[in-house]
């Protein structure tokens, strides 16, 4: 039988023979330096650590985030299948801007936006122009820049001032459009939403447009509620304005979410390039395009709708390439993931996935709408998103922020937030249904909401309102 001292001597001889003597490697998991002790939080560590140690520390910190599958606040995709995961790992090193080094990835990018142009009923996909972007925010910025430059060129040709461009937006617009107007010196003109007009629908549009208007943004899936803004009605209002004033104002459709829903679930709805005033459309591939975060698309009806002054000829690593993007180096893997999904799902597959999400949204909206505590804003039949508010007079003991915190105890992230200007006294709660929220999970969520409401309704005194989190995830 080996004594403890003999075991120690044998271990020392073995380490001397193999050259293994680093205390980090001798210590078992969670007892190694860096795990049993601590790394500095805000300073670069002085020395190295084992890859296993660094991995475990980062892995463990990431566990403190919420469960992404239960995050019903975000529109951003949180799941792809194992083949996509494998493809992602294999292509993570590809730089999308380096088209000379990765010509096949560049060719696949072109295939993708042409497929999307066809999906959006471009008159001729071969005469359209498009590009991938980091996300829908960059796509919106490019769409807005094209609107501004077209307006500037037309004004200069007519010998008129280009000093005061403005853009017409719903007050419920996504924050990226506020950034666009701020960054590029465009006056935002917000059309307020009201109880009667819950989105931008063309009502009184003539009070907002003038000769300095570069365009109107129509949202296919308002982030506050999920409803579609009626693009055809907005275009009809602009047609009337042009007949009366001569102002020819284009539309950019922000299809961040609806751009990959409407073609499959509402194919007869005229919102895309079938509406002649629509000059450009953007979407977020990492939302209902079903790709991991980091990809958007923007397509213009024709090449002439994208002013050539915005396209740069870039020499990079020995090759020449056109570039019209705000970012330079960016991942190419997500473009390949998009192409994988187009091949994997096809039109029928995308329909089935989006319809499954819509069915869950409609089910949840129906169950929540039947609860006496709530009044629905919409029912999830546009994009699979819906919102509700507290029924007036239901309670003075709690509000939707309290319900959001109560549901967070079960792992559900369901934000509550005030509506935009003119309706800031109205607080709503919103659910975003994405691929991965099954009917079974949805049924569990309904039970958790019912339990939370029963608990809150049974309170004998009002909940405190100090320190409540007013969360809104665009």
TrEMBL record:
Reactions catalysed according to its record: L-glutamate + H(+) = 4-aminobutanoate + CO2
GO biological process per UniProt: L-glutamate catabolic process
GO cellular component, one term: cytosol
UniProt keyword terms in alphabetical order: Decarboxylase, Lyase, Pyridoxal phosphate
Cofactor(s) listed: pyridoxal 5'-phosphate
EC number: 4.1.1.15
Region ranges (Disordered): 1-25
EC main group: lyase
GO molecular function terms noted in the UniProt entry: aromatic-L-amino-acid decarboxylase activity; glutamate decarboxylase activity; pyridoxal phosphate binding
Residue positions where N6-(pyridoxal phosphate)lysine is found in the record: 287
A Pfam family per the record: Pyridoxal_deC
PANTHER family cross-referenced by the UniProt entry: GLUTAMATE DECARBOXYLASE
NCBIfam families in UniProt: Glu-decarb-GAD (TIGR01788)
Family assignment from sequence similarity: Belongs to the group II decarboxylase family.
Protein name: Glutamate decarboxylase
